[in-house]
């Protein structure tokens, strides 16, 4: 009987979801519902343009055409073109000028105009000589945006499933996380551009993921250099899904014709720095074996990295007891899901550090030390510290596990001694190169020098201390738990300030609710231990700031450049443990009964997905 009720509920939810999705598409197509046409516009005036067969060619930088419109509404402007170089062009309607870019990587423009006009004329300024074009047309057709369809439908069905099975999900937050993360994350991977220059330094991560541990040469996709070429940055050139798809077709054609090639890496830095790119590399290797096209290999590489993040966070929630709700909320920050769906190693570092903190708390709770938890903790910190040694002081937490939890005191001393040795080795991967002068500054250029900056700090310690204190006073709160901690999409920002603020405020309230709803026994965490947390947290924060001052800030500068919120998210759970309420009484664990713990993170991510489709690549 219960199964029939479940099936009936899901069928009703399915029908409602489909109906609302259809209505949503009708709403977004409301301006063209009565038109639904694609027509070629008549050219009524030209300047510095000659005709060559069916093509027109510009003969100066002041070339333009004026075309006649059939209707007062323009949804999209379309034309084909040929060019050997990038060029800027403008569409002008009733003296309103809109700037655009074009690239030889594709041979057609499909640009969203969405404008009602009284003039029935459209002017196109090409602003470049030797550009060929033809078939200037107006696209007023009904257009089904399948990315939008998937996001709306998945949001409605996902919400229906969460509400129906909320009791089960609240009792199993780890499985609730899997459902929400996989549903929203896989959608995000597919709706965001299948290229780079949309997340921080993703072109560098893309190249390193392809070359992986190679020092001199590596076998990479023939399209890699095209993808990482900044001149093909999609945010400037591909402003609609049609243009994005045309670019994908170009990449896939290039990949099919040229396959894989040898690439000069010339990277002699320590190979352990690139181990963190292993999930991406596995995706690329599978693509090579299966002979997949360029865009599919990009999606597969992102997917494997996302799965890695998801598994780390899944186990962080699973191993937690009183921290389950807090870890659950952090794991579903829109910023974390976004980074995990892009070319970035930050998500696996975040996942590793959150898991390590959860394991440490569990070891404090348990009467007897679980060796699996212990070694997993060390492995997680090492994974995060290999590319960024600044996180290695997290190992110091193990020194504060009571000796009585080990089999004997000798074992405790031995293990804690080994921990200190590992910590020193990890720190040496950054400290020794910095002291020896073998570390370079910002690889992207600028007046930076690690050696020069280090000399400045050592010769002006008081001045540097003032710089750090001033920076922390101005930027500390934003770095620790500001808006970008919860909702940040790097260069894919949804550009709707009200939505960003709403997602941030609601999730922050939820996080604080989950945190202060807990009440930990002082036998587990006392004030002395909280002081230790604060010292380790502050030490890592200082290391982060100093590392960025050394590597990314001009020598002797009074400000600190390159510091980003994402560097502090791995430490967030440890920072929250400083604030968590404690009591001498043994508090009985309450059951999770607040469905908003499930709904708020899910709606936040899916709302983010929707605005990525709406504002990110055009519709």
Q: What does this entry look like structurally?
A:
The chain is of the alpha+beta class. Among the domains are: 37-140, Sandwich (Jelly Rolls); 195-318, no CATH class. The protein is built from 22 helices and 15 strands. The chain has helices at residues 2-28, 146-164, 166-171, 173-191, 202-211, 224-228, 234-237, 241-258, 278-290, 294-319, 324-331, 334-340, 346-365, 371-385, 409-436, 450-459, 461-481, 483-486, 497-517, 527-552, 572-579, 596-616; strands at 37-40, 42-47, 49-52, 55-58, 64-68, 73-82, 87-93, 96-102, 108-116, 121-125, 132-140, 217-221, 260-264, 520-521, 582-583. Strands 1, 3, 4, 6, 9 and 11 form a six-stranded antiparallel β-sheet that branches. A five-stranded antiparallel β-sheet has the order 2-5-10-7-8, with no helix packed on it. A hairpin with a 2-residue loop joins strand 7 and strand 8. The mean pLDDT is 90.
Low-confidence regions: none
Question: What's the Cα radius of gyration?
Answer: 28 Å
Strand residue percentage: 5-15%
Structural class: alpha+beta
| Net shape | globular
Helix content: 40-55%
Number of helix segments? Answer: 22
The first-to-last residue Cα distance is 45 Å
Roughly what is the average pLDDT, rounded to an integer?
90
Major β-sheet profile:
6 strands, antiparallel
